[in-house]
Amino acid sequence: MTSIGEVPAARLGDAATVLDEDQITAFVRERLAAHPFDGRSVCVLVPDATRTCPLPLLLRAVHGALHGRVSRLTVLVALGTHAAMGEEALARHLGYVPGRLEETYPGTTVVNHEWWKAETFADLGTIPAARIAELSEGRMSLDVPVLLNRAVVEHDVALVLGPVLPHEVVGISGGNKYFFPGVGGQKIIDVSHWLGALITSAEIIGTTGITPVRALIDDGAALIPSEKLALCVVTAEAEAGLHSVSFGETRASWASAAQVCAATHVTYLDAPVRRVLSIVPPMYDEIWTAAKGFYKLEPVVADGGEVILYAPHVKELSSTHREIYEIGYHCRDYFLAQWDRFAHIHWGVLAHSTHLRGAGSYDPETGEERLRVQVTLASAIPEDICRSANLGYLDPASIDVAAFAADPDTLVVPRAGEMLFRLR
Q1: pLDDT (tens digit, 9 = 90+) per residue, 228-254?
Q2: Closest to 264 measured CA to CA, from 215, 208, 211, 307
Q3: What string of DSSP letters covers 118-134?
Q4: Fold of domain 267-423
Q5: Residue 116 and residue 197: Cα distance in Å, rounded?
Q6: CA dihedral 43, 122, 51, 163 (to 10 degrees)
Q7: pLDDT of residue 6
Q8: Mean pLDDT score, 52-69
Q9: Residue 2 in this model has a pLDDT that exceeds 90
Q10: Radius of gyration (C-alpha) of the chain in whole angstroms
């Protein structure tokens, strides 16, 4: 049991267990059966396909517990600012036959978070500048309007359903993060991501406590009028199962799962490595998400070392955030020293840029940027685009994974992006 606030979260499993499907289904159904959902409308927030978890299993359990009891059931895909999922992708992701949602999940509506449409959002109020200054320890001071997908506020209950993982902006993902940035408006996304960038990914990633960014997200969530619940899971990747499932209020459920995540999703090395071959899985189809293969490895790379993102399937830096082609990838201090030049760019894009480029310094007098680690793309993105974005390039056809694995100075990480690596 873990508690933030008044009501503790219930949890099945821990870092040492791998739950089977029957255990998972029984826990979900028992917990939801005991909660007062009857006659109420429920919005279930789920991740998109850039997160690993047995979502069809979980959603079937949730639907089985709620169908016939609730007045309305909506599944909202928390895209953040990722690309929308089409019907084929949604069916594969949620576990139904394309075009036949009603057969598997009767009485259920599935919608993407249409973040590109102004009418998607409801205005919940403002987090004042004084509070932002407090949370950011003086790094920022501005009023932040809190916009949220109106589907959440138009339901009586918001139920978050998804995994908890080490995260470069918030520390440990999940919980209220499904609201912001999951289905939130641009300003709170920009402010939260840039605050994380100012603190730096290397410092914040994997933190189980309430980071400044987590506190900001929790403040935004406190303005949501719906009841907020979460089923937070921790994946057992090798067995394609779950270590644990936590249920309760979003903050308590997240805190319970975060403790398990910290014990299962961090690999410790005794010494830094000179080079990493980070093998990017197909679920990351742009550098915007494939960059997780760098974030999670940066802490174990020696000064002057290199991370190679091996992603032969990736053809774009980002399909939805074209500004990244204009500004490229740079360290935090590069932007801070030239803030007047870059302040108009969405801060979330600036944050992504700094997260992939990692630690470094910038001398405004000489224009010299010194970066701690070299980042090289071995992808389908042409060399000229990589170079213009301030990244290295390797022909993916030249990559011999076995040869890299045989090199004592190289760490090969299969399926990079969800496991965090740290030095002891």
Answers
A1: 999 999 999 755 689 999 999 999 999
A2: 208
A3: GGGEEEEEEE-HHHHHH
A4: 2-enoyl-CoA Hydratase; Chain A, domain 1 (3.90.226)
A5: 24
A6: -50
A7: 56
A8: 96
A9: no
A10: 21
Q: pLDDT by residue (tens digit) across 184-205?
A: 999 999 999 999 999 998 899 9
Q: Which residue has the tokens 């950011």?
A: 136
Residue 228, token pair as written in the block? 């907020």
Pairing of strands 72-78, 273-279: unpaired
Pairing status of strand 368-371 against strand 374-379: unpaired
pLDDT in tens, 141-188: 999 999 999 999 999 999 999 999 999 999 999 999 999 999 999 999
Cα distance from N-terminal residue to C-terminal residue, the chain: 28
Phi, psi for 294 (deg, rounded to 5):
-95, -50
Residue 357 CA to residue 151 CA, distance in Å, equals: 36
The secondary structure of the chain in percent helix, strand, coil, rounded to multiples of 5, reads 35, 25, 35
Span 10-264 CATH architecture? 3-Layer(aba) Sandwich (3.40)
Q: Please report, for residues 84, 319, 360, the alpha-carbon distance to residue 76 in angstroms, rounded to integers and kept in the order given.
A: 11, 22, 38
Amino acid 333: pLDDT: 97
Strand partners, 393: 377
What 291-294 contacts at long range (C-beta under 8 Å, 24+ apart), as own/partner pairs, is 291/352, 291/355, 291/356, 292/168, 292/416, 292/417, 292/418, 293/413, 293/416, 293/417, 294/355, 294/356, 294/358, 294/375
Would 10-264 and 267-423 be classified into the same CATH topology?
no
- For residue 240, CA distances in Å to 21, 22, 48, 289, 316 come to 11, 14, 17, 21, 29
Concatenated DSSP letters of 235-269 = EEGGGTEEEEEEEEEHHHHHHHHHHHHHHHSEEEE
Per-residue tokens: 134: 């407090």
pTM higher than 0.90 for the full model?
A: yes
CA distances from 149 to 116, 126, 158, 285 (A): 11, 15, 11, 25
Q: Helices in 67-127 by DSSP H: which ranges?
A: 87-94, 101-104
In the numeric block, the tokens 């032969």 are attached to 312
Structure tokens given for 285: 């189809």
Contact 29, 40 (CB under 8 A): no
Give the list of residues 6+ apart from residue 146 with CB closer than 8 angstroms, or none: 123, 124, 125, 126, 127, 180, 184, 185, 188, 220, 223
In this prediction, residues 369-392 reach a mean pLDDT of 98
Domain map of the chain by residue range? 10-264, 267-423
